[in-house]
């Protein structure tokens, strides 16, 4: 099943949101940190807490891993997709070992793997280049160690995930709840886990030694607004996207059934983990639906337990497949023929080199302000054309743009600039045009 899921994740390459803005955005963090030793966000200019803001506060571990793998491969999409998918499957395998250790049956584990592996949070994680692939794998490893009576190193590993992104603090919550659901809260264990958290904090500070001065500098820029309560990533996943309401109804019903049958279960460990993570997901100030991967496995475990799904494994498996697969087929229909493949990126790269020669610029001096989808053609000194970077428009010497979004309107990101907006921002002169996967790309230079 794990091999089948890996095939499922890789087979529709560039069919799952092929123009997702987070793909070049997060890879730009890793590229800048690995190649140019730049730690802030030079791609979209989104400062923390509005965005990750590069790797100056979070993400050094994930950036190092992506750099180690992608630098020899030229920072292209296929190796990045393989990396994310492999770690997603690895994390699911760790959950399988954890469930076996906790005494769950093979049928239960197979249904769990099917439900989580086909869920949108997992498929999205496996097909995107965001950092959840590593943070989820670390949390899964930490929980496995806790289940195998290694709660101290388990908490340390889970806490390391918080260096990658703030939402991965969910790993600490899950590891602590699982620990004290399985083992007595002795003074020795509490002190040892405090030491584990302290060690993880020291690792974080070693990777981000200037964190306190950076946060002080960011406070005035934030305007003193603070964090507004929005319902966290629980609301952004279940309530802001109506297609997930059936899942929410299923989990709510499972919670009611579980409570009524609570006397029949030998252990409530995963149910308590699900409860704690649900509270965390609602309280989390930044509501990105990508973070749902930290909660979803616990909710699935609760639902399978409450409904005794392994007793009707065939019916449960059919329901999972019939609910998930048609959604992906519809998405693949919307994205049919979209995405820039290696040959398209190479075509744009050659055009950029030709334009630089026309402008008398070498690669070191070339600064591009262009469509975010084309970052892969020239990762160095590439600023995405967006509302957040409009102040940078006058600093470039080469501009890449489309007249309109190349994808379906419902999938196109907001606040992205196209050729008409660029022509209003700066005085530009046309250099050349070319067709990239049936889309007309325009190259401009400053007048």
From TrEMBL:
Keywords: Membrane, Transmembrane, Transmembrane helix
Regions that span the bilayer: 78-97, 133-149, 189-207, 227-244, 265-284, 290-307, 314-333
Protein known as: Dolichyl-phosphate-mannose-protein mannosyltransferase
Native source species: Granulicella rosea
Lineage: Bacteria, Pseudomonadati, Acidobacteriota, Terriglobia, Terriglobales
């Amino acid at each position: 099943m794990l091999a089948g899921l890996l095939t499922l994740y890789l087979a529709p390459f560039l069919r799952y949101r092929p123009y997702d803005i987070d793909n070049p955005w997060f890879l730009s963090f890793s590229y800048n940190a690995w190649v140019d030793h730049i730690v802030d966000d030079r791609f979209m200019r989104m400062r923390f807490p509005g965005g990750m803001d590069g790797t100056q506060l979070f993400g050094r571990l994930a950036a190092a891993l992506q750099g180690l793998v992608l630098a020899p491969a030229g920072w292209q999409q296929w190796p990045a997709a393989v990396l994310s998918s492999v770690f997603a499957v690895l994390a699911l395998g760790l959950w399988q070992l954890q469930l076996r250790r906790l005494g769950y049956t093979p049928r239960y584990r197979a249904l769990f793997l099917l439900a989580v592996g086909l869920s949108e949070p997992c498929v999205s994680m496996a097909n995107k280049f965001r950092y959840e692939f590593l943070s989820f794998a670390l949390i899964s490893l930490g929980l496995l160690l806790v289940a195998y009576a290694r709660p101290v190193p388990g908490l340390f590993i889970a806490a390391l995930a918080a260096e990658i992104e703030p939402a991965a603090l969910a790993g600490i919550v899950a590891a602590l709840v699982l620990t004290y659901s399985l083992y007595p809260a002795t003074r020795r264990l509490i002190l040892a886990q405090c030491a584990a958290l302290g060690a993880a904090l020291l690792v974080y500070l070693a990777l981000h030694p200037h964190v306190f001065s950076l946060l002080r500098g960011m406070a005035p820029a934030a305007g003193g607004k603070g964090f507004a309560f929005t319902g966290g990533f629980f609301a952004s996943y279940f309530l802001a996207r109506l297609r997930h309401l059936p899942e929410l109804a299923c989990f709510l019903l499972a919670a009611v059934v579980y409570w009524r049958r609570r006397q029949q279960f030998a252990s409530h460990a995963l149910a308590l983990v699900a409860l704690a993570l649900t509270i965390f997901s609602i309280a989390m100030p930044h509501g990105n639906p990508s973070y749902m991967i930290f909660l979803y496995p616990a909710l699935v475990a609760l639902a399978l337990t409450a409904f005794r799904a392994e007793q009707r494994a065939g019916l449960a498996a059919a329901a999972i497949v019939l609910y998930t697969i048609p959604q992906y087929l519809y998405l693949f229909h919307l994205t049919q023929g979209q995405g820039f493949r290696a040959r398209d990126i190479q075509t744009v790269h050659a055009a950029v080199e030709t334009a630089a020669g026309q402008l008398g610029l070498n690669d070191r001096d070339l600064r591009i302000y262009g469509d975010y989808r084309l970052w892969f053609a020239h990762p160095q000194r590439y600023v995405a054309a967006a509302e957040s970077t409009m102040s940078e428009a006058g600093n470039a010497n080469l501009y890449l743009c489309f007249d309109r979004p190349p994808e379906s309107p419902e999938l196109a990101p907001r606040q992205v600039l196209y050729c008409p907006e660029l022509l209003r921002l700066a005085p530009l002169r046309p250099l050349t045009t070319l067709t990239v996967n049936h889309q007309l790309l325009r190259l401009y230079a400053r007048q």
